[in-house]
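Batch job 17 of 40 flagged for manual review because the log was empty.
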Amino acid sequence: MELNIDIQILKNQLSIDDCYEFILDETCGGICLFIGTVRNHNKGESVKFLDFESYAEMALKEMRQIAQECQSKFKAKKVAIHHKEGKADIKDKAVIIAISCIHRKEAFEACEYAIDQLKSRVPIWKKEHLADGSYWINSRP
């Protein structure tokens, strides 16, 4: 693990405290946390729970690259990106992105950049389980 980057894909519950403690830095006044949670609906249908699967080796590599981009583009001091794998119930944390920067503006921009890039580039897929069946999100328009 690089000193200022913490990238993980976890089967157990994600910890806001772990991410926050990791990115704390006495030189930084701006900390931004994004927490993506499992909601109980999508496209007018009731969601019971989600399953996340990943191509872990490639996902971790791509997540690390995104963290490094946050450091170079937004001068982020520390970056933590944790994503859930396996079953996630309603209200569970699916992803946490935590970033510390000297100033708040860069922290907000870096956090938004990180989640947008994660959603578009990282090979992590989710399957929605409904009352009447399930489907992979990426395979449905």
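Reviewer: the log was empty due to a logging misconfiguration, but the result itself is present. Residues 5-139 form a domain with the Aldehyde Oxidoreductase; domain 3 fold (CATH 3.90.1170.40). Unflagging and moving on to job 18.
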